[in-house]
UniProtKB/TrEMBL annotation:
Its cofactor is Zn(2+). Residues 28-150 form the Succinylglutamate desuccinylase/Aspartoacylase catalytic domain. This is Succinylglutamate desuccinylase/aspartoacylase family protein. Keywords: Hydrolase, Metal-binding, Zinc. Signal peptide: none annotated. It comes from Flagellimonas profundi. InterPro entries: AspA/AstE_fam (IPR050178), AstE_AspA_cat (IPR055438). It holds the Pfam family AstE_AspA_cat. PANTHER family: ASPARTOACYLASE, SUCCINYLGLUTAMATE DESUCCINYLASE. The lineage of its organism: Bacteria, Pseudomonadati, Bacteroidota, Flavobacteriia, Flavobacteriales. It comes from the Bacteria.
Length: 400
């Protein structure tokens, strides 16, 4: 149990790991909302609490099950992003094995992971498919609401029902995220960024997102008119075109770097060439060409200073869908220097001598994101093989 305070609302809540759980009519989906995976991001916690109270007070029928889960209870209590290590950067299978199976939790965040993992395992064991995992976040800079997700066709198809900007490719830069781990299990999983940490609008945007998500997944039945109104509310919350964007650059902050972002930058802002972005170890960092900035860091904790993004042309989205459907990657492994990492056939090993002839963008079209480089090979993983698309095939949004 933790006390969670919202600066935006000037309110305090007492929450447990499972903030709330409603077991509804059998046969419906299982929808899980996470809030507070980062302890300084409280909007999602307050939003789920309010929405579940609304469902109970209005006695709305629920199809299937819905969960509200708190992420980092210790960090929420102490009002900081994390205590020892970012909980949203440690979800690696090998590490989970040590923490959960071998009971080798060395600090607070590893204990938090242990509890979350066991809860997740129980939900997947006892819940009814299809499963949806929606993680509620906020940012340190001012922002229009947006979504981030791993680039699988299943995730894309689901996310395209939200009239919001959608960011692909973050898994290539941001390693060990909870949602990446869940997506690699094959389920729909995405993150919703509702606004700045301490902005009251971030709480309301999260509430609107939850309402619309419950309607979209048919967890709560609404009329066609109500559905359109909920969607319109989501659309009006954003000032950024509801396009797909991709991340192509991340500025890493090393453990010994002194990084300070210049004030005033906001998400999706277009920055001209030659503009100073930050001071890194006393040296001013400027844009070398026109850029579009994403998630500039305005808090003490965090290892990612900012990203650069660009819109993805619709023709490339269409092409990638076709190429993945044709399994073009199975042809690539016939080339010298390209092979499967294992019999799962979801990870390519490309010899570095050959890799320089492969544009990263081409691998992206095929659904691959670079997982790591070593001295001899580029290792790239595909999310498509794991996708449990058949579990979603009968849903209305999937059939559209």
């Amino acid at each position: 149990m933790s006390l969670v305070h919202s600066i935006a609302l000037d309110e305090t809540l007492e929450v447990d790991r499972v903030i709330d759980h409603i077991q509804g009519i059998e046969g419906g989906p299982t929808v899980v909302f996470f809030g507070g995976v980062h302890g300084n991001e409280t909007a999602g916690v307050f939003a789920v609490k309010e929405m579940f109270q609304e469902i109970r007070s209005q006695k709305k029928p629920v199809n299937g099950e819905i969960y509200a889960v708190s992420g980092n209870l210790g960090a929420l209590q102490s009002r900081q992003r994390f205590q020892k290590e970012d909980l949203n950067r440690i979800w690696f299978p090998e590490r989970i094995e040590h923490i959960v199976k071998n009971k080798e939790a060395n600090h607070n965040e590893e204990e938090e992971l242990n509890h979350l993992y066991l809860l997740l395992e129980n939900i997947l064991d006892t819940g009814n498919p299809p499963f949806y995992f929606l993680d509620l976040h906020t940012t340190s800079s001012d922002t229009s609401p947006f979504m981030v997700l791993n680039d699988s066709l299943l995730n894309r198809k689901y996310a395209s029902n939200y009239p919001l900007p959608i960011i692909l490719g973050i898994e290539e830069y941001l390693k060990g995220a909870l949602l990446s781990y869940i997506n690699e299990l094959g389920y729909v999983s995405l993150g919703f960024e509702s606004g700045q940490h301490d902005d009251e609008k971030a709480v309301q945007n999260s509430i609107d997102f939850i309402r619309y998500s419950l309607a979209l997944t048919q967890s709560v039945n609404v009329s066609e008119k109500e559905y359109k109104q909920l969607k319109k509310t989501i659309l009006k919350s954003s000032t950024v075109p509801n396009k797909f964007y991709e991340i192509y650059h991340q500025h890493d902050i090393g453990p010994k770097n002194d990084f300070k972002m210049f004030p005033g930058f906001i998400n999706f802002q277009k920055i001209p060439k030659g503009v100073g972005l930050a001071v890194v170890d006393g040296v001013e960092l400027k844009t070398t060409r026109k850029r579009q900035i994403f998630m500039p860091l305005y808090q003490k904790q965090g290892n990612e200073g900012f990203y650069f993004i660009r819109p993805i042309p619709k023709i490339l989205l269409w092409l990638s869908k076709k190429l993945r459907g044709l399994k073009v990657d199975h042809i690539l492994v016939k080339l010298p220097g390209v092979q499967w990492e294992s019999d799962k056939k979801d990870t390519l090993m490309v010899d570095q001598k050959v890799a320089r002839f492969f544009a990263k963008s081409f691998l992206h079209l095929l659904g691959y994101r670079a997982r790591r480089f070593d001295r001899t090979h580029l290792i790239a993983k595909n999310r498509e093989r794991a996708s449990k698309s058949s579990e979603y095939a009968k849903t209305e949004w999937f059939r559209k």
